Amino acid sequence: MTGSTNTPQESAGGYPGVGRVLVVIPTYNESDNIRVIVDRVRRAAPAVDVLIADDNSPDGTGAIADELAAADPQIHVLHRPGKQGLGAAYIAGFGWARERGYDAVVEMDADGSHAPEELPRLLDAGRDADVVIGSRWVRGGKVINWPVRRLVLSRGASLYTRMAMGYPVRDATAGYRVYRMPVLDKLELDQVASQGYCFQIDLGWRAYRHGFRIVEVPITFAERERGASKMSSTIVREALVRVTVWGAQARLGSVKRALGGGQKRPG
Ligand SMILES: Nc1nc2c(ncn2[C@@H]2O[C@H](COP(=O)(O)OP(=O)(O)O[C@H]3O[C@H](CO)[C@@H](O)[C@H](O)[C@@H]3O)[C@@H](O)[C@H]2O)c(=O)[nH]1
């Protein structure tokens, strides 16, 4: 794994009330999207830095990312050896941010589904929260142009997660988030095994069980216009199995607490 050597400079003051912020954008075959998304982030929130975590995309996304980083000291690249899943790319990005003293990280898809123009609103919410989730499924949240099967899958996954685990977040798989660094320091990231979109549920659930303040801010999520989603049946299966197991563990924990008297949140 290699990283670019840019030193954060203009971002030194950071985002008011939040501090130095790094937007981590995981990429796999996003050559048609990466320039546009990075440019939009830089315009929408000039104080934040960007890290592109690329899994050696065969379409040359990594080379484009290098070009962007060479032209702007606030853009960085983490080259990873091959496709290892969204979760692993984010964890590597979080480690990169921690080593360089960032105060918060943002998760954002590369394909434009998460509008960078909404980032200041998420960061503002981050002044009074530990975790901010850009949510499609709270009042004011919207989805544009998603096929019905994705809508059903996403809403169904969040609903199942709430029911099975007692996890109150409405958009459990949301991928547009802000984590304050002290939260990530507590989440035992070295034990996170979720690879696909289940990673989002995993981290949120960990933060919830630690008692961190999680807020959901409505966003408008738009279906990508270029490139392809990496959604697969493996990703769906992983989420289904893990949520079912976590739910069972949470119920078992509740029973044990009822019998023995414990203090932690479910799980
Ligand atoms: N580095 C790396 N990046 C990946 C990998 N798989 C996916 N990505 C990147 O992760 C982002 C999301 O992947 P998509 O394939 O575009 O996801 P989606 O189906 O459109 O979106 C849904 O799942 C996302 C994952 O949490 C959610 O973020 C999003 O809100 C939505 O629900 C994109 O930037 C994509 O390039 C991987 O193995 N490695």
From TrEMBL:
Source organism of the structure:
Planosporangium flavigriseum
GO CC, one annotated term: membrane
Q: This protein is called what?
A: Dolichol-phosphate mannosyltransferase
Q: Which family does it belong to?
A: Belongs to the glycosyltransferase 2 family.
The record's PANTHER family line, in alphabetical order, gives: DOLICHOL-PHOSPHATE MANNOSYLTRANSFERASE SUBUNIT 1
GO MF: dolichyl-phosphate beta-D-mannosyltransferase activity
What is one Gene Ontology biological process annotated in the Swiss-Prot or TrEMBL record? glycolipid biosynthetic process
Provide the organism lineage as a comma list. Bacteria, Bacillati, Actinomycetota, Actinomycetes, Micromonosporales
- Cross-referenced InterPro entries, in alphabetical order? DPM1-like (IPR039528), Glyco_trans_2-like (IPR001173), Nucleotide-diphossugar_trans (IPR029044)
The entry's keywords: Glycosyltransferase, Transferase
Task: Report domain Glycosyltransferase 2-like positions.
Answer: 23-187
